[in-house]
Specification:
heterodimer, A: 588 residues, mainly alpha, two-stranded antiparallel ribbon, 63% helix, B: alpha+beta, six-stranded antiparallel β-sheet, 22 helices, 52% helix, 16% strand
């Protein structure tokens, strides 16, 4: 890795970690009391919303009521997004006169945005009207993220409350998360992005003169180009902050109007991990032991950093095939070197690798380079981070509650190994919690494995795999890993906008979202009903290096054991089939 | 009972081998989901083998046979592990059953007339009254309502010295199967036929009534989930493989035999096979320490105990207080005091009274005198007067609590001298009990009665503290005395002037705070507290009520036994946890052995993953399957003995066990599979 690369990564982590504590504490206050600074100005809005929707904010919900509220809200969201897409042709703010989205694509997109996945089978600028982008998709970017955070907060309440059957009020958590956390952060980020050149307009697409006129297939000179514009900045800010990832434009953050400058790139990168990382701190604050939050954050970093380093190193090393034919890929003042296929020269190796790892670690799914063109090992890292269950940072809320499910399993194992009924944060882990934790881990795994199996078997699935050999397999595996873990990034190389993939991947997203959320809420309810056991010398501390190591081991072992065979037939064999000599490459 | 059968006793071994074949019954297999999956896999490969024999295609039938045979061995080894654990229990049960020979009971139709009719012991109902004479066996559990007798309880406790059983008080309960040696007893039957203590004990050690404990259920769920994941991993590997063959244009799809082999290797068979053996062995270890648990749940709860309530008397201190010193008042010699104390204790048959006589004899050579001619009038201790003594030659000699004696001498015109008062206070402050002695209106001095703390008890409490268990001493003493003894014995806390209600309240208080409480008890007044405690060990010498309220009975009636019970409870959990970790860690090596072999024809480049450099694909797969089966046998001794528990604190324990069973589980199969592979290729078997 180059010195400049190391410095960029160092700066990124320094800024990220500096933001974690203040934001984490702020969020803890938002969910457990008046929000600092903003309660006074936004409080009336909040209360007006409660009156408007007929919400009694003081009413507490049992876990089943909470789960019903989440489900009901998601169903309404799904129907709304679906209808917007189907009737956009007759609605206003459609400057390009885009017609209704096809039924299967609209179905897939509606699920995708209500589950915080943002898998995109469509191309934004050629499919969605401004109104659909704003009123349907961007709204879901906010509320699906807020719903994930609400479920996390409900789980945390399960830990801190005792001998009760209630875990909070979903509507209050949803509204407060949106109003006090996501809206203010998005507003700030959107304004900064606009200052960097991200577009924000209702104008129709622009006709601009080409700097270098081209000749089309029929021999006509092409001198102008239509450039898509739109209300992009407002959507991009929340797309990054809410681990949504659905680009305004088809090529996502590789698009110059979506991600124009190095500063914009840095801020968008920062926004990917900002809330998921800060929520660890929120967790520590709320359970009354900050060390618990730091331990979880440490476990995430312990998985994240090595995978980031490996990805950067293998991408910088590049493809040995090119080395064989004598291509100069040594980094210098004039080129990034390494594997630049599918990467923006503006971003180079380090920023592309960092984005790829961050976006798959967090279930963001936005891209600034094409993951399909990464080296096999680079692609493997991204794929595996999703297969771990999106718990290394993961989605806002969903990542941490997924990690806490793994922590429950780790606590259970370690409890048995020290000869004591396991307890986590003073709550005894019993058969019910283990049953729900097993389901939450099992469902996404099963969905990825079975979905991939169906797709590589069914002719309709095999038809649109554009690459041959193990890479074609990787593309399908990546798609299902992304959908079932609500990431939403695509490997590309797979024609996924077909009724087959729209339907199957849509189903995978549903299972991946709600078959984790519901068990998590069940755990929250069961924990809240339990007594809190005070910690004694016989209690295994869960804030120590030892526990972090164990937690990391459980996450990685479950991920490795479940996906090793599939990965062996995809990226691993692809890597092993590359020419072995890497002569002339000294960039490492 | 106290006989410990060696781990691999010959008769148990042969019995277990037969039993492991019998247990192939699918209904037995269904009880263990992990092993049932292996069972189905074995059936499948058997069919594949038969098929390959009839219509040879693709795989050699020799290879399929090899895999099939070892899969069946995997199932058999699991059965064997369970059978051998059960065998140990049955051996204990058999010796118990000997004492349950058909006894004839002599049922009294009317207590006064002593008219008895002979009925079978099994026909006795609750409330029936029977008489048992010397040499006869007590037919069933009951309460002595009349008579005193010495009873040989060795059939239950293994203790050969007979014990006294009498009506009233805390020694009134008798157990069926024990024998009256002298005198006679009239007993009221307290249990239904077939539910006596002995019956329950046999059922428990035989494992007939074994229910899964909460942790066992939680672990079973985790193992089932893992099995399901691996089932999916293996099942989806077939379409992946077909796709890969098409994509690479070479080789053939993975065979069903290899898929089954891979599944069995990945599924947590090691822990799955040993899980029930671990549970049974835990109960066996408990009964080997002469504790009978009424449920497995209680044993497991013992491992979680946070607070231990211990009776002072008998547990922390040696039975009773003993006189250690005479302190005479000014103007009275110690000898004078000793003589008066000696006289006052002549008729006192309590241990304290006798210890006064012993001390007087030791210090001043005083002996019991013939007093009949002077017509002594003995006054027994009563709770009201709180004094005892003797009236002799017109002199009133009294000994008793300070206030009681003071009131007594004041009524005769005397007073309590200042120096005696100071001595009394000093004695009380040091945790001993002062007894004031008076003759008529004159106070002669004080006797110091001291509680003797048992040797080694302080170290045991330190051990408990390291395990994270808080010890609380329960005593009827005043707070001052209690505090001094608590300090000397090294307990963490104490409850002084304890009444049954106070005990109950204390337990409830700890439980509301989320603590798990264990206690021992023997008396009827302990019953409510025993019923409330999470782990309640009743002494076998105690009353029927206490035994029924507790969830364990200690046959040795040794109150410090709780520490061993806690150990066994912890061991039980640790053995399960460690073997689960080991089992899962093993999978890594198995992947590296089987995957390159399974895809050798499609993707030869995957050979790079074959870290063990195994000789051939078929040998690689067979070696993994054999290792998977053999490791079960290799771990049976560990499952039966349990993972050693040392009180070193949770973090240290976890670190040690992770290193041994986690890291060990990662490394051992690499070595084991390689060795089996070398053996197979050397002998030309694969």
């Amino acid at each position: 890795m180059t010195t400049s690369g190391l410095l960029q990564l160092g700066l990124y982590f320094a800024v990220l970690l500096a933001c974690v504590r203040p934001l984490g504490r702020y969020m803890a206050k938002v969910y457990s009391g008046p929000a600092p600074y903003l309660e006074r100005s936004l409080g009336p809005v909040e209360r007006w919303l409660y009156r408007l929707c007929g919400i009694a904010p003081a009413t507490e919900m049992t876990w089943k009521q909470y789960a019903n509220a989440v489900l009901a809200f998601s169903v309404v969201s799904f129907v709304t997004v679906y209808i917007f897409q189907r009737v956009q042709g007759v609605l206003p703010l459609n400057t390009e006169r885009l017609s209704a989205v096809s039924a299967d694509s609209a179905f897939n997109t509606a699920i995708s945005f209500t589950t915080n996945t943002n898998w995109q089978g469509y191309g934004g600028e050629t499919t969605m009207s401004y109104l659909t982008q704003m009123a349907a998709l961007t709204v879901q970017n906010f509320v699906s993220a807020a719903a994930g955070m609400a479920v996390l907060i409900a789980l945390i309440r399960g830990f801190i409350r005792h001998s009760t059957d209630t875990i909070g009020n979903f509507w209050v958590d949803l509204i407060r998360g949106t109003l006090y956390i996501l809206l203010p952060l998005s507003l700030v980020l959107a304004v900064v992005l606009v200052s960097q050149g991200v577009v924000q307009t209702f104008d129709s697409y622009r006709e601009v003169a080409l700097l270098e006129p081209a000749i089309d297939a029929e021999g006509h000179a092409v001198t102008t180009q239509r450039v898509a514009v739109g209300p992009a900045a407002s959507q991009i800010a929340i797309k990054q902050l809410g681990t949504n990832g659905g680009g305004f434009f088809n090529v996502n953050s590789a698009h110059p109007l979506e991600n124009p400058t190095p500063l914009a790139n840095f801020l968008e990168l920062l926004a990917i991990l900002l809330i998921p990382a800060a929520l660890c701190c929120t967790f520590g604050e709320m359970v009354g032991d900050r060390r618990q939050g730091w331990a979880i954050l440490a476990a995430m970093m312990v998985i994240f950093v090595p995978l980031l380093v490996v990805t950067t190193v293998v991408e910088q090393a590049g493809n040995p095939v090119l080395t064989h034919i004598g291509v100069d890929r040594v980094p210098s003042e004039f080129q990034s070197g390494g594997n630049m296929e599918g990467k923006e020269t503006r971003f180079g190796i380090v920023n592309s690798s960092l984005w790829a790892v961050a976006t798959t670690a967090a279930s963001n799914g936005s891209v600034n380079s094409m993951h399909d063109s990464f080296t096999p090992l680079g692609g493997l890292g991204a794929m595996w981070l999703m297969q771990l269950g999106e718990v290394v940072f993961g989605g806002v809320g969903s990542g941490l509650y997924g990690m806490l499910v793994f922590a429950i399993v780790a606590v259970f194992l370690s409890g048995l190994m020290v000869g004591r009924t396991p307890e986590y944060l003073g709550k005894k882990i019993g058969a019910f919690e283990m049953k729900m934790a097993s389901l939450a881990i099992l469902f996404p795994c099963a969905t990825v494995l079975v979905g991939t199996a169906v797709a590589v078997t069914a002719p309709a699935g095999r038809e649109t795999i554009f690459n041959s050999g193990p890479h074609g397999f990787s593309e399908v595996l990546y798609a299902f890993s992304s959908a079932a873990n609500n990431n939403g990034s695509a490997f590309a190389g797979l024609g996924a906008n077909t009724p087959f993939y729209n339907g199957l991947l849509g189903l995978a997203m549903l299972l991946g979202r709600f078959c984790v959320m519901l068990p998590v809420l069940a755990i929250a309810g069961s924990l809240a009903a339990k007594k809190t056991v005070p910690a004694g010398p016989g209690t295994l501390p869960t804030h120590t290096t030892l526990f972090v190591v164990l937690l990391v081991a459980v996450v990685m072992v479950v991920g490795a054991l479940s996906f090793f065979p599939a990965l062996a037939l995809g990226p691993i064999i692809e890597h092993l089939q590359l020419p072995t000599t890497n002569a002339g490459d000294t960039s490492l | 009972m106290k006989t410990t059968t060696p781990l691999l006793d010959r008769t148990i071994l042969t019995g277990a081998i037969t039993a492991s074949v019998w247990k192939l019954n699918p209904r037995v297999q269904l009880r263990n989901p992990v092993m049932f999956a292996v069972y189905l896999g074995s059936l499948l490969t058997t069919v594949l083998w038969a098929n390959s024999w009839a219509a040879p295609a693709g795989e050699s039938s020799g290879f399929i046979l090899g895999v099939t045979v070892w899969l069946w061995f995997t199932v058999l080894f699991a059965n064997f592990a369970e059978a051998i654990a059960e065998g140990h229990g049955q051996a204990q049960a058999a010796s118990l059953k000997k004492s349950r020979t058909s006894v004839v009971a002599r049922k009294l139709s009317d207590r006064k007339g002593r008219r008895a009719t002979e009925v079978a012991a099994t026909d006795l109902q609750i409330g029936d009254v029977v008489i048992v004479n010397a040499g006869e066996t007590i037919p069933t559990d009951g309460e002595v309502i009349e008579g005193v007798a010495s009873v040989d309880e060795s059939a239950i406790t293994g203790e050969s010295a007979p014990v006294v059983r009498e009506s009233g008080g805390d020694r009134s309960s008798v157990t069926g199967g024990t024998q009256v040696i002298s005198d006679w007893l009239i007993i009221e039957v307290k249990t239904l036929p077939g539910q006596s203590f002995l019956d329950r004990m046999i059922a428990m050690v035989e494992g007939a009534k074994r229910q899964k404990t909460p942790n066992e259920i939680a672990l079973a769920i985790l193992l089932a989930a893992l099995t399901l994941i691996f089932l999916l991993v293996v099942a989806t590997l077939l379409p992946y493989s077909i796709f890969s063959v098409r994509a690479s244009g070479q080789g053939h799809a993975i065979s069903l035999t290899v898929l089954v082999a891979l599944f069995v290797c990945l599924a947590p068979t090691t822990i799955g096979a040993l899980l029930s053996a671990i549970g049974i062995a835990g109960m066996n270890r408990l009964s080997q320490t002469n504790v009978i648990a009424m449920s497995g749940r209680a044993v497991e709860a013992a491992g979680d105990v946070d607070v231990l309530l211990l009776d002072k008397t008998g547990t922390i201190t040696l039975g009773n207080r003993q006189a250690t010193r005479f302190i005479s008042a000014d103007g009275v010699t110690e000898q004078e005091l000793a003589e008066a104390a000696h006289l006052a204790s002549m008729a006192d048959e309590t241990a304290e009274g006798r210890s006064i006589a012993v001390l007087a004899k030791k210090q001043f050579g005083l002996r019991a005198r013939e007093l009949e001619h002077i017509k002594p009038h003995f006054i027994a201790f009563s709770a009201r007067t709180r004094m005892s003594g003797v009236t002799l030659d017109g002199h009133e000699i009294r000994k008793g609590a300070t206030e009681a004696v003071e009131t007594h001498v004041r009524s005769l015109g005397g007073f309590l001298p200042e120096d005696v008062r100071t001595a009394v206070q000093q004695i009380a402050k040091s945790g001993s009990t002062p007894l004031v002695v008076s003759r008529d209106a004159k106070v002669l001095g004080v006797i110091e009665l001291k509680d003797i703390v048992k040797g080694g008890i302080k170290e045991r409490f330190a051990e408990l503290r390291q395990m994270g268990i808080k010890t609380v001493m329960i005593t009827g003493d005043n707070p001052l005395t209690a505090a001094a003894i608590a300090a000397e014995a090294g307990v963490d806390d104490f409850l002084a002037e304890a009444t049954p209600e106070a005990k109950l309240a204390l337990i409830r208080e700890y439980q509301t705070g989320g603590r798990l409480v264990a206690m021992t008890g023997d008396g009827t007044n302990d019953a409510p507290a025993l019923a409330q405690a999470d782990v309640a060990v009743a002494m076998n010498s105690g009353t029927q009520a206490a035994k029924e309220a507790g969830n364990m009975v200690d046959l040795d009636s040794n109150p410090t036994k709780l520490i061993e019970i806690v150990n066994i409870g912890k061991q039980l959990l640790m053995t399960r946890g460690s073997l689960t970790t080991f089992s899962i860690a093993n999978d890594v090596a198995k992947y590296f052995a089987i995957l390159p072999a399974a895809f050798a024809t499609t993707y030869p480049a995957l050979k790079a993953l074959d870290l063990m450099r195994l000789s051939s694909p078929s040998s690689a797969i067979l070696s993994a399957v054999i290792f998977n089966a053999v490791i079960i046998i290799a771990l049976i001794p560990l499952a039966l003995k349990g993972v050693a528990y040392r009180p070193v604190g949770a973090a240290q324990l976890l670190r040690n066990n992770l290193l041994i069973y986690g890291l060990g589980g990662l490394v051992v199969p690499f070595i084991g599979i390689k060795m089996i592979d070398l053996l197979l290729s050397a002998t030309g078997l694969a």
